[in-house]
């Protein structure tokens, strides 16, 4: 059985590897076609003119495009540097603000509700929060179960009566 399971796993792995290889080939061909499409759109083929004046004109156009690209690059770099500087300044301000105020270590304080209200409200505190004083007294009625439990009595006496051979003899006599 072990060898059949291993053969099944190996067969699964080989099928998965074949599928993965075909997927890689498809992905490679797709990337190559995307590359060709991008190059055809953004880089038209270069036509070199025959006369010297046309070549000079082409060079001037290429230099103008290069200058425009360099200006754009420079503007982007300046924006990035400016935003980086702003971020550093804000971080420094935040650090300075945090440093000015030293946070004290907090301790647990046991305080009654009355003391807490007095501390918060000061002399305005008139309400008494003694919750135990406000509780109602409930009279408990005896139920039949509680009476039965009281009538049974102390469990230790029952154990002492049933201990020993005489107690076991009584148990068998009462069961039958």
Core attributes:
176 residues
SSE blueprint and pairings:
Blueprint: H1 2-42, H2 52-100, H3 113-121, H4 144-152, H5 155-162, H6 164-175
Protein name: Troponin I, cardiac muscle
Keywords: Acetylation, Actin-binding, Coiled coil, Muscle protein
Function: Troponin I is the inhibitory subunit of troponin, the thin filament regulatory complex which confers calcium-sensitivity to striated muscle actomyosin ATPase activity.
Short description, anyone?
Residues 21-100 form a coiled coil. The protein has 176 residues and is mostly helical. It is 73% helix and 0% strand.
Oligomer: single chain
Question: Would you count the extended β strands for me?
Answer: 0
Distance between the first and last residues' Cα: 61 Å
Radius of gyration: 47 Å
Q: Main beta sheet, described?
A: none
Helix tally equals: 6
Globular, elongated, flat, extended or rod-shaped: what is the shape? elongated
Q: Percent of residues in beta strands? A: under 5%
Question: Low-confidence parts lasting 5 or more residues at pLDDT below 50?
Answer: none
SS class: mainly alpha
* Element-level helix/strand string: HHHHHH
| Helix content estimate | over 70%
Mean pLDDT: 79
Organism: Ursus americanus (American black bear)
GO molecular function: actin binding; troponin T binding
Function: Troponin I is the inhibitory subunit of troponin, the thin filament regulatory complex which confers calcium-sensitivity to striated muscle actomyosin ATPase activity.
Protein name: Troponin I, cardiac muscle
């Amino acid at each position: 059985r072990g060898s059949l399971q291993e053969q099944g796993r190996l067969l699964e792995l080989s099928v998965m590897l074949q599928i993965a290889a075909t997927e890689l080939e498809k992905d490679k061909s797709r990337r190559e076609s995307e590359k060709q499409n991008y190059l055809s759109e953004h880089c038209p083929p270069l036509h070199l003119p025959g006369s010297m004046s046309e070549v000079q004109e082409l060079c001037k156009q290429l230099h103008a495009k290069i200058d425009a690209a360099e200006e754009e690059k420079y503007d982007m770099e300046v924006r990035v540097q400016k935003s980086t500087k702003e971020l550093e300044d804000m971080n420094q301000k935040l650090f300075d603000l945090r440093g000015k105020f030293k946070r004290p270590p907090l301790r647990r304080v046991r305080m009654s509700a009355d003391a807490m209200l007095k501390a918060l409200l000061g002399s305005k505190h008139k309400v008494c929060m003694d919750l135990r004083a406000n509780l109602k007294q409930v009279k408990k009625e005896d139920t039949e179960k509680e009476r039965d439990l009281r009538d049974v009595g102390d469990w230790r006496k029952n154990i002492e009566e049933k201990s020993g051979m005489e107690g076991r003899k009584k148990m068998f006599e009462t069961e039958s």
